[in-house]
């Protein structure tokens, strides 16, 4: 989510520039925002952490032109400008960050770098410059979560050095999208489909559980996305102070778990949505596997870990230390995996 919500800005938010994205490198005085956990991993700022990010999360742009109700960076949000979801993002010089990313990647402390880009005048040019700058400095796989205007913008970011581009749907249903994000879901969907066809294996999306769709809605969409090779990052809606949805409730953990496991079974090719069962409220009641097979499939605990681009673990985007663990940012212990599997199986009954 930039709930990660940037993560979810609608494409077409800027007037098309006839010359396309500018492909210079970042100006020497450019600043990149860095998540507080990333800043610690990169050695830019000390922070005690019990879960360490394995991706460098970087944010470009200031207050977003769009107005996603869940997003700390939304136009009308009263959350601090350095906030995104539950995370704060101090700013550092771009060249300094790029060198720190290179060192962290070279020593195995991070596996990826991710630019989260707010929608605003010049935001895509800034993203293009940032990608070019980072790609020149390091061999780290780069992904960009932004609001490209068209497939050509996607291609440009990829050619400049991004390994992947993420176009966030956030919402599974057009009506929810219109209510929570504004604009047309179909526009984002069509761009996602065209991009996935043109650049197979290099396109991702973000989905947020808890915005108002049923489990059946979300899981059905996950199957469609998986079938066309789109990488699906799953988030739990997280109320952030200062946003329009600050007082809305996060999803029950049992709801999140059922969708999370459905995503994993689909992506792994273990089952498909047509084999799933739902009750009259769209709640998952079966994955089409018996309990023994389901337990055997889930016992590694991988299904409960953060999903998204390879190497992305997003510690504390949706979680508070010691609170509900929607996405595990690290491997589960045997006891944790057994507990999660038992709770999941019980919740299907
Ligand atoms: S899934 Fe990819 S685009 Fe999304 S936050 Fe993780 S690394 Fe960034």
What tags apply to this protein structure?
349 residues; alpha/beta; TIM Barrel; two-stranded antiparallel ribbon; 14% strand; disordered N terminus; binds iron/sulfur cluster
Largest sheet: 8 strands, mixed
- Tell the overall outline: globular
The CA-CA distance between the termini, in Å, is 30 Å
Helix proportion = 25-40%
Q: What CATH architecture do you see? A: Alpha-Beta Barrel
Number of domains: 1
CATH superfamily: Aldolase class I
Mean pLDDT: 89
Uncertain regions: pLDDT < 50 for 5+ in a row?
1-19
- Strand order across the biggest sheet? 5-1-2-6-7-8-9-10
User: How many helical elements?
Assistant: 10
Q: By helix and strand content, what is the structural category? A: alpha/beta
What is the third-level CATH name, the topology? Answer: TIM Barrel
Radius of gyration: 19 Å
Percentage beta strand: 5-15%
Task: Please explain how this structure is put together.
- The chain is of the alpha/beta class.
- The protein has one domain: Aldolase class I (TIM Barrel), CATH 3.20.20.
- 33% of the residues lie in helices and 14% in strands.
- The chain has 10 helices and 12 strands.
- α4 (151-160) links the parallel β7 (142-145) and β8.
- α3 (123-137) packs parallel to α4 (151-160) and α9 packs antiparallel against α10.
- It is globular and about 60 Å long.
- 51% of the residues are buried.
- Mean pLDDT is 89; it is low at 1-19.
- The structure holds iron/sulfur cluster.
- Iron/sulfur cluster (SF4) binds at residues 4, 55, 112, 114, 143, 145, 166, 204, 206, 233, 308-309, 312, 314.
């Amino acid at each position: 989510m930039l709930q990660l919500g940037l993560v979810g800005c609608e494409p077409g938010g800027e007037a098309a520039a006839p010359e396309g994205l500018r492909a210079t490198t970042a100006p020497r005085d450019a600043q990149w925002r860095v998540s507080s956990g990333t800043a610690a991993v990169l050695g830019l700022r000390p922070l005690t952490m019990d879960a360490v990010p394995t991706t460098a999360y970087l944010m470009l742009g200031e207050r977003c032109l769009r107005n996603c109700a869940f997003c700390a960076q939304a136009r009308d949000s009263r959350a601090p400008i350095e906030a995104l979801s539950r995370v704060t993002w101090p700013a550092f010089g771009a060249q300094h960050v790029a060198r720190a990313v290179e060192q962290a990647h070279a020593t195995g402390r991070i596996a990826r770098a991710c630019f989260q880009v707010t929608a605003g005048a010049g935001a895509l040019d800034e993203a293009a410059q940032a990608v070019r700058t980072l790609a020149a400095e390091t061999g780290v796989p780069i992904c960009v979560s932004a609001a490209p205007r068209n497939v050509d913008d996607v291609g440009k970011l990829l050619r400049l050095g991004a390994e992947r581009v993420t176009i966030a749907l956030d919402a599974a249903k057009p009506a929810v999208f219109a209510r929570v994000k504004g604009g047309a879901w179909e526009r984002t969907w069509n761009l996602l489909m065209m991009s996935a066809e043109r650049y197979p294996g290099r396109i991702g999306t973000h989905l947020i559980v808890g915005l108002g769709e049923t489990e059946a809605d979300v899981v059905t969409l996950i199957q469609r996305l998986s079938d066309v090779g789109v990488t699906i990052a799953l988030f739990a809606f997280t109320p952030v102070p200062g946003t329009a949805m600050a007082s809305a409730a996060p999803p029950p953990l049992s709801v999140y778990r059922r969708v999370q496991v459905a995503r994993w079974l689909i992506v792994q090719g273990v089952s498909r949505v047509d084999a799933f069962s739902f009750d009259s409220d769209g709640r998952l009641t079966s994955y089409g596997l018996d309990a023994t097979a389901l337990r055997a499939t889930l016992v590694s605990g991988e299904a409960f870990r953060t999903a998204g681009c390879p190497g992305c673990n997003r510690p504390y985007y949706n979680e508070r230390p010691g609170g509900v663990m929607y996405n595990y940012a690290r491997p589960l212990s045997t006891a944790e995996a057994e507990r999660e599997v038992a709770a999941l199986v019980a919740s299907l009954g």
